[in-house]
Every structure is written in C-alpha cells, then in structure tokens.
Specification:
Elements: H1 2-27, H2 44-47, E1 54-55, E2 58-64, E3 70-76, E4 88-92, E5 104-109, E6 114-120, E7 133-134, E8 141-143, E9 146-148, H3 157-161, E10 168-172, E11 175-176, H4 180-188, E12 195-202, E13 205-212, E14 214-215, E15 219-221, E16 224-227, E17 232-235, E18 251-256, E19 259-260, H5 266-271, H6 276-280, E20 295-300, E21 303-310, E22 315-323, E23 334-343, E24 349-356, E25 383-388, E26 394-396, H7 398-403, E27 419-425, E28 429-436, E29 445-452, E30 468-474, E31 477-479, E32 486-496, H8 499-502, H9 524-544, H10 547-561, H11 563-589, H12 594-607, H13 616-635, E33 662-663, H14 672-675, E34 686-687, H15 690-705, H16 712-731, H17 737-756, H18 761-794
Helix pairs in contact: 1-16, 9-10, 9-13, 10-17, 11-12, 11-18, 15-16, 15-17
Length: 795
C-alpha cells in the first residue's frame, strides 16, 4: 500500500511538472525579433528624429483642448544653426582614497545636456559581474590610427597613467588597436591590478604609457544597449556613438503658447509599430533639445553649465549641474540640477517643460534576485519610485508601465501635496529627483508619471528587465520679456540604499518624507525582525571584519537564545521515542476504532506529561527570523559585496548572491533548460554547492528529529516528506549564500544539541520490554481465540 502511494505521488508530481512546462510554452511563446530591434547600428540621434510637415513656413503641432480635440496650429520654424561638436565633461572623482572629497564620478555630455553615467568612488561599491580590468570610461571613437580618447576622468587609472583627451591609442601590450571596438575587446581580456602598456599617438608623437588597471566601480546610472539575441540589456562600455537607450535627465518643452506635445494613450502606443524610442524623444516642432548638442562649459571645478538658445521661440534654456562635496557628516551622494528658462524676445510666452529622470540603473543579479512589492502588481529588477507628501510610496514596474496598467499620472493638486521624490529604485541603489526646496513653495509640477525608456523584451521571462524612468511635467508659466528667468532646482540623488544616508534626503524637509521609503522589507513583521538582525550583524562585523563570520556569530546567538525551547523540542522527540512501544500497542488494540484510539493516545500523553505539538514551537519561532534574515541579505547593501573568504576568491565572493562555484551555462554536459537564466526548471547559469550541503543536513535532521510514525498514514507522510526535501533544495538553489550559511550553521547546532542530550535508556528499555510481553500475550490470546472459534464451527 505504501509503495503504491509513493509511486502514485511520483507519477503525479512528474505529470504536474510536464503539464506546467507545456502550459508555460503555450502561454509565453518566444516571439520573433521585432524589426525595430535589428537596427542597432544606427545612432540614436538619427533614429529618434520625428518626421515634420511644413505648413505656411511653420510646422504642424497638436494642441490639446479640454474637449479632447487636436487642432493643427503653427509654430515658427527653427532657425538652422551649426551645432557644437559632441563634448564630455566630468564632475567629482573615481579615486577611492579617503582624501577624495567626492563620493561620485559623474560623466556629462552636451548631447542633450545630459548625464551619461554616475559611478560610485568608494571601494565598497564595485561591479560584481564584470571582472575585467578598469581603465576608465574614455568615450573612445574610431580614428584612422586607432581609438581616439575623448575624455579622461579624475581618479581613474587612465588619469593616473597620464592619458589625455585627444590621445589615440594604437596598441595595448604590443597588440594593435584598430578602432574603439578593438580597444573595448582588448580591455575585456584584462583583470584588476594588471599592468598594461599603451602605445599612443599624441600631437603626432608616438609615446608609451603604463597603467595599472583597477576594479570596475558600481555604476548607478549608465547607458544601456539592448541585445536582441539574448533580449537582455547590457551596459555600454567604451564606444562613443553607439545606439543606446536615452541618457539621464533629458529636458524639452512640453508646452509653448498653449501648444502641447501630442501623446498617444497606452493602448495606441502598444498597438503602434513605430520605434518606441522615437515616440519617447518626440518634441514640439521647432524645438530640438533632447537630441541636440548644447553649448557646454566647465563653470568651475564643481559645476558644468549647458546652454541652448531657441531663437525661433525667443527662449534661452540653461541646465546647470553642481556636485556635492563631503563635509563632515553631510551627505554627498548628489548633484544639484538647476533649470533656467529665459525670454530673450519682445513678447510674452507661456512655457512648460518636461524633465526625464535617471535611466540605466544596474540589473546585476537579475536572474536570482527577488524584491518585495508594495502592491499586488508585479515588480521589476528596477522600478519607478514615487512619493507625494501625505501619500503612500509607490513602486511601478516596467511591465505595468508598458502595458498602460496604471492609474492616471500623479498630480500636485495643492501646496500640501508636493512631490517628495521621483526616480528609479534598484536592488541596492537608487536614483531620484527631489524638488528644492521642500518647504514653503508653490507646487510647480503639473504631473509625474513613469515611462519606459527602452525597448521592452518580448519574452515574458525577461519583462522585468525593462529600462524605466520617470517624467516630470511642469505647470505652464508666463515668461515676460526682460523679466527674471524661471528657475527650478532639483537635488539629484544617486547612491547606495543605506538607511542613515537615505533619511537625509531631501536635505531640508519633513523628516517623515524622505528617500528612506526606498528600503522596503515587505510586511511589517519582516521589517521588525530584519532591522534588528541587520544591526546585530553589523555589530559583529565591526568586531571580526568578515560578514561570513558575522553570520555564523548571529546564527549562534539566535540558537543560544532559543536553546531552552529547542532543548524542550529534543526532549519531546525523545519522549515520543520512549512512548513508541505503548503507542504501537494502542494502535494494535484499537485498530479500526479511531475515536477510542485517540482517547487512549491522549490518556497516554497526559499520563506522561507529554505534548506532541510542543516540537513545532521552535520551528514556528524560526520562521520570522529566517525570513527576516532572507530580506536583510537581499536589501542590505553592506552584504552585497561581502565575501566569505576574501576578494581574491571568486567563489562565494558575494554573500547576498548564490555561491556560484562553476559557470556551467556553456557546458555541453548540462541541458540548456537546466542552465538557462530563467525558466520553470532552470537552476541558473552557475552550479552552486552550498544548497547541496543544506539538503544533506535537512535529510540528516529529518532522520534524527522526526518523531516515530504512529500508523500507516503517518509513516507514508514521513516518507513523502523525505522526498520533498529535494524539492525544497530546488527552491533554495538560488537563495543568497549567506542564507545557506545560516541554515548550515543552524542545522549543525541542532544536530550537536541532539547528540549531546542524554538518553534515558533505562526507561525506554522497560517500556520496550513491557510492550514486547504485551505483544506476546496478545499474540497468544489471539491464537487461543482462533482455536475456540474453529471448535465452535466443528460442532
């Protein structure tokens, strides 16, 4: 009977798995690549130039009326003027040294007066997936002789080596460099701390410079390239002019003299076959700000200023970026962005602008990470994050935004409902715009909404990888000639999600409304457990200097505090073992009489002061602790780069990720479905060894701790539980290695407790002897009864 049940269980489980796989393939087929995704070699500025229609010397523009009608009106045609050449500027420094007053290295470009990338300078925040050597982002472009360097940022190995803007790299360690792409490939084959020699041409003179490569820093903001073959976004490295998603903090006019940019509703946008980036870059006719080169200048060491004059509209726009310096306890993970609109004509104009937020936040660990959602909707690897005063914070996923499954745009309806922040939230970092000041000002934003800034992956498995941002649209303001310029100021935060740091933004405002809302553990019970456990973990780390040892110490502390309860559990299991002979006797005596058997069992337990449910209490108490640590490992950025043994060993070099012993994705020995990044039966691209230790200890604990079966049904359930451990191991396969370490140490502690607990063998032997005598007597009485019944039939 038991074997038949087990076989049916196995057959049923296999049938469910196969059925689920077939259903998944039907519901989520991998579609063909859209034609728009094949055009990757065309520069973004060229792709995103909308068609224009001339009408009486002007251009058609849609005017949004209250009744929903769009009428064709005209805007003066833009005056043709030669644009400045593309330029790059930097603020801050990548130097990880303690004397560096900057926490960020910011790269800006005059193409759209945008932020191209933001890197964290601290050595605590390094790229975990790209292990190649880091020379610094050079914005390299092709040259007849090699790769031309367009920028050299302070604090990078390139700056330390003496590279200069305008240098042409012709060779790396003796290997010729033909173009910018070749330079990128050559650098990918290097490693941190490696010393390289670069042959360069400077002002026609051939020179050689030596550079010691560093570890690639964590980029909070960077360009992102869409890779259609894998449908996975990848960061742009060194090549200038490649096709990519829009840069960060792009600005354009949303309204001029009551004429507005016509926007499609979500349904129309979804049905459209046009390039989504082309729609994203739509501007008023006569206006070219997002894809044009502005006039740029380095105003001072900490400030870069971009200016663009629209002579046809009598407007001059200025974007001014100023980086913060560390000063004592003041936070410095931010820029100040100042937007200035000035009327340089002779007549008044009503003007409104739209400002986009950060793009290209990290997607590291996307195949194993999981984040709690603030709503019942799905959540992405990165999500648009919004907070209005007096309202609950919101996280909006790329899939929700792309499908149009959102409420109407957020609006600032009153001075007491101001925007606190709007930006993008990723696993361990965040980037956001915060209007300045937060107090005593009139609301200047008409609406705030999330936007998808890249091409959404077509495969459902990768929908969470969409590149998302936010868009702020200002109220219309009348600019009079000769009057003061309209100036709006924003704080641009880009940094790690550290609770103490986030609580300081906005720099001035209500202490209750701050970026601290970006840290979300899920239900309050998990936060109640996770926060103190994180603090204890940091305390232990301050003593031993290793988070692996700190997790072991935390585990031992938790088990020591639970020792009285776990000891009671062990004694309870021993009691069950002692009473097993009596329980077997009751099962035999009252076979087929469940009510009488239950009463007899309860009487037996009451006689021996035994509660069979007492063993469940330690397991129930450990659930919130276990899940609290689970959330802490996935949210606390301090654990993100924490190695178990050291940075030199790649295995288990990030306790917030699986241990990743062997990259088996490209191995011919491993089935593709098993090593895929995502899928129903996928284990991921790495072989992880710690989950197998976890399963082994689970099985050993089951054998030692599981109370004896009292009947056939219990015995069958226990057998199924042994095989369910394998399924649990599958679920645990991609959990953080720090969590596996906690489970391994906790299991080892529990086994040691059981081994060290004294066993009352005398009493057990007495009960066993009594049960044997009773069984013999019962057997003899049963035989006598059968003989009597046989004699009766003979008569």
């Amino acid at each position: 009977m038991e074997n038949r049940r087990f076989i049916l269980f196995i057959i049923g489980a296999i049938a469910i798995l196969i059925g689920n796989m077939l259903l998944w393939s039907k519901l989520h087929p991998i579609p063909p690549q859209p034609a728009a995704e094949q055009k990757q070699n065309q520069p973004l500025a060229e792709k995103n130039t909308p068609e224009k229609v001339n009408v009486n010397g002007g251009e058609v523009v849609a005017e949004n009326k209250a009744g929903g009608e769009n009428k064709a009106t005209t805007v003066p045609a833009a005056a043709e003027a030669a644009e400045p050449a593309t330029q790059w500027f930097t603020l801050g420094s990548a130097d990880p040294g303690t004397n560096n007053p900057y926490r960020l290295l910011v790269t800006l470009t005059n193409h759209g007066a945008a932020v191209e990338r933001i890197e964290l300078s601290s050595s605590h925040y390094r790229d975990l997936e790209n292990r190649s050597g880091y020379l610094g982002h050079l914005a390299a472009e092709d040259s007849p002789d090699g790769a031309k360097v367009n920028m050299v940022a302070p604090g990078t190995p390139a700056a330390e080596a003496g590279l200069q803007q305008g240098d042409i790299i012709t060779a790396l360690d003796g290997s010729a460099i033909a173009n910018a792409e070749a330079l990128g490939k050559a650098l990918k084959n290097t490693s941190p701390d490696q010393k390289i020699k670069l042959a360069i041409s400077r002002s026609g003179q051939q020179q050689t410079v030596s550079a010691t490569l560093g570890r690639r820093p964590l980029e909070v903001v960077r360009p992102e390239v869409f890779t259609p073959e894998m449908q996975i976004p990848e960061p742009l490295d060194v090549v200038a002019g490649s096709a990519h998603d829009p840069f960060s903090f792009l600005l354009t006019l949303s309204e001029f003299d009551k004429k507005k940019i016509a926007e499609k509703n979500p349904g129309e946008a979804k049905a459209s076959t046009a390039d989504p980036l082309q729609s994203l870059d739509a501007e008023l006719p006569g206006v070219k700000l997002r894809t044009a080169n502005w006039e740029g200048k380095q105003a001072d060491a900490d400030t870069v200023e971009f200016t663009r004059k629209l002579s046809n509209l009598d407007l001059e726009l200025t974007k001014r970026y100023k980086i913060a310096k560390a000063d004592g306890d003041k936070p410095a993970y931010h820029l100040t962005l100042e937007i200035e609109l000035r009327n340089v004509g002779q007549t008044a104009h009503s003007v409104a602008y739209q400002l986009d937020g950060p793009t290209g936040l990290p997607i590291e660990g996307w195949w194993y990470t999981s984040r709690p959602s603030r709503s019942w909707g799905g959540i992405g690897v990165r999500d648009a994050a919004l907070l209005m005063q007096g309202k609950d914070p919101a996280l909006l996923s790329p899939a929700q935004t792309a499908d149009g499954k959102l409420d109407p745009p957020y609006r600032q309806e009153a001075a007491d409902a101001l925007l606190v922040y709007a930006g993008v939230d990723a696993q361990y970092v965040g980037a956001a715009l915060l209007p300045v000041p937060m107090k005593d000002r009139e609301p200047w934003l008409a609406e705030i909404k999330p936007i998808v800034v890249g091409r959404m992956p077509q495969d459902a498995r990768y929908k969470t990888l969409g590149d998302i941002s936010c868009r702020l649209v200002s109220e219309s303001e009348t600019l009079k000639p000769g009057a003061a310029a309209l100036v709006h100021t924003y704080t641009v935060f880009a940094g790690p999600k550290q609770p103490d740091l986030l609580a300081q933004y906005p720099l001035e405002g209500n202490p209750q409304d701050n970026l601290g809302e970006l840290i979300y553990y899920g239900w309050p019970i998990w936060a109640v457990v996770a926060r103190p456990m994180t603090n204890i973990l940091h305390f232990f780390y301050s003593i031993v200097g290793n988070y692996g040892l700190a997790i072991i110490m935390l585990t031992m502390l938790v088990r020591a505090c639970m020792f009285p309860i776990s000891r009671k559990q062990a004694q309870n299991a021993q009691k069950m073992q002692e009473l097993k002979p009596e329980m077997d006797r009751i099962n035999e005596k009252y076979k087929g009489k469940p009510e009488e058997k239950t009463r007899a069992m309860q009487e037996l337990w009451r006689k021996h002061n035994h509660n069979p449910m007492a063993g469940c209490l330690p397991a129930l108490l450990q659930i919130p602790i276990f899940l609290g640590l689970y959330r802490a490992l996935w949210i606390d950025i301090s654990l993100r780069q924490a190695p178990l043994f050291g940075d030199a060993i790649h295995w288990c070099s990030n306790l917030a990720a699986p241990d990743m012993l062997w990259y088996w994705k490209d191995s011919p020995l491993i089935p593709t479905f098993l090593s895929a990044y995502r899928g129903f039966l996928s284990l991921g691209p790495y072989f992880n060894v710690l989950p197998f230790f976890t399963i082994a200890l689970f099985i050993l604990q089951q054998q030692m701790f599981m109370p004896p079966a009292t009947d056939d049904q219990t015995r069958s359930q226990q057998k199924m539980m042994k095989y369910m451990v394998i399924f649990i191991g599958y679920l645990y396969y991609t959990v953080p290695s720090g969590l596996c370490l906690y489970i391994i140490v906790s299991s080892a502690w529990g086994i040691a407790e059981r081994k060290l607990l004294p066993k009352p063998q005398k009493k057990t032997a007495e009960l066993a002897t009594a049960a044997a005598v009773h069984a013999k007597n019962s057997s003899g009485n049963g035989a006598a009864a059968r003989r009597d019944r046989k004699k009766q039939r003979g008569r």
